[in-house]
Amino acid sequence: MKAEVTIALSSNPRTWPILSGTVEADNITLFPSTLHPSEMFWRQLRFGEFDVSEMSISSLLMATANGDDRWAGIPVFTTRKFFHTEILVRKDAGIESPADLKGKQVGVPEYQQTAALWTRGVLENEFGVKPGDMTFWMERNPDHSHAHATGFKHPPGVTIKQIPHEKSIGSMMASGELDAVVHYILNANMVDRSTVDLSRHPDIKTLFADPRAEGIRYYQKSGIYPINHGMVIKRELLERHPWIALNLYRAFEKANDLANNQRLAHTAYYVEAGLLSEEAGAALREPLLQHGMAANRHTLETAAEYSFQQGLTPRLMRLEEIFAENTLEQ
């Protein structure tokens, strides 16, 4: 008899095969829900609605550190991004480099979220700008905040203010009440409420004049492509059926292979048509996005170090505490 498992995922090329049923997990019947990550994490952390779901790496570290043992991680990583390259600033705020963020008013959807964790980590360790150098304004209200479920407390020396419910990061950036924003979420959902398109606003620009070049610089220096979301499974389910973790891992590996094969096919087409150079085609053939602990340990350990450095976790968390034991050798 197959195990019946509810699963919550966001939609992207590496989850589509799972959501559509194109890829099935051995001996598991999946009942999927497609959700915006902000809502998904809030519902999962607050109510534990799903057997398996995507999860914020930062929230998983914090929840586990604070004694919430409901979840075990599976080394499947559905989204990555160079978050610090997406910092937006007002053109009239006098911010031309990361150092100019010192003393500024900075919006953030949720202080503890993984995108903000990575951005602050890079600002501090690459550019010498510490969290305490800025004043943060958080958009999410306490009743819909991930922080409520993870035991988040303001780190010493950091000022975090609450954006009033009638305002948002978008409105405060447009009005000049904020100087900058970390990880702007335009797609309104049950948790986030900004609706102003700052990417087209005449008074707003990116901190880095060439975000792509900064992402390349950071990756070539660090070897890190920051992980945002992983996967978690309820430990009570894992205790009854330990094999579920690896069966799910294998399914996501198959889904990732499908996405890679599609990318390779498109790359070959564009190279043959002369729309891509051979050099660009060779670069696109390299499997940049991989699941598993072996390929991602350095990135995950860096996230854990940043979490401890920023006072989100009371001690440096070990990956063995976070992930299902039978997945650690993948």
Structural write-up:
By secondary structure, this protein is of the alpha/beta class. The chain has 2 domains: 3-81 and 226-327, Periplasmic binding protein-like II (D-Maltodextrin-Binding Protein, domain 2, 3-Layer(aba) Sandwich); 83-222, D-Maltodextrin-Binding Protein, domain 2 (3-Layer(aba) Sandwich), CATH 3.40.190.10. 38% of the residues lie in helices and 17% in strands. It is built from 12 helices and 11 strands. The protein has helices spanning 16-20, 37-47, 57-65, 114-127, 147-150, 169-175, 211-222, 235-240, 243-272, 278-285, 293-309, 319-322; strands at 3-9, 28-34, 52-56, 71-80, 88-90, 105-108, 135-138, 159-162, 180-181, 204-206, 227-234. A 6-stranded mixed beta sheet has the order 8-7-6-9-5-10, covered by helices on one side. Strands 2-1-3-11-4 form a 5-stranded mixed beta sheet. Strand 1, helix 1 and strand 2 form a beta-alpha-beta unit. The protein is globular, with a radius of gyration of 20 Å. The two termini are 27 Å apart.
Rounded average pLDDT: 92
Main beta sheet strand tally, sense and closure:
6 strands, mixed
Overall morphology: globular
CATH superfamily descriptor of the largest domain: Periplasmic binding protein-like II
Total strands = 11
Report the uncertain regions: none
Give me the side-by-side strand order of the main sheet: 8-7-6-9-5-10
- Helical segment count: 12
Q: How many individual domains? A: 2
- Quaternary organisation: single chain
